[in-house]
Amino acid sequence: MTSPFTSQSFTIAHADSGTFQGAGLRPFFEYRDLGINQATKGTHGAHVIRAVPGMESPGTWHSHTLDFQMVYVTKGWVVFEYEGEGEHLLREGSCVLQPSGIKHREVRHSDDMELIEIISPADFPTHDEGAP
Known about the structure:
By secondary structure, this protein is mainly β. The chain contains 1 helix and 10 strands, in the order E-H-E-E-E-E-E-E-E-E-E. The strands form 3 sheets. It has a 5-stranded antiparallel beta sheet. Strands 6-5-8 form a 3-stranded antiparallel beta sheet, with no helix packed on it. A two-stranded antiparallel ribbon has the order 3-10.
């Protein structure tokens, strides 16, 4: 029997069987892939990001070229600064939609910070930026 699903496949990711990897966009964060990239053939991605205790962000400005980027904080807090929007403290339960191309930087975070990021596409370019 063939699968009726052509653009996506069924997937489940459980916290107790997931592993965090240090290899990601930022060295002061660890990333746990939720399997969405593979299940959607790269059209979307989702991962849990958590702080590496004791490591701080250098606060470098950057932007991303992508169709969708949403961040939802599940633990702790993080301060982001956005071009034209200023600094924002995101804490447990906070959600932000970051438009494509907006210059931003991670300013600081708690050692227990954890968030979920949902993106489209799964792979996207990141650009170093000067301060706005």
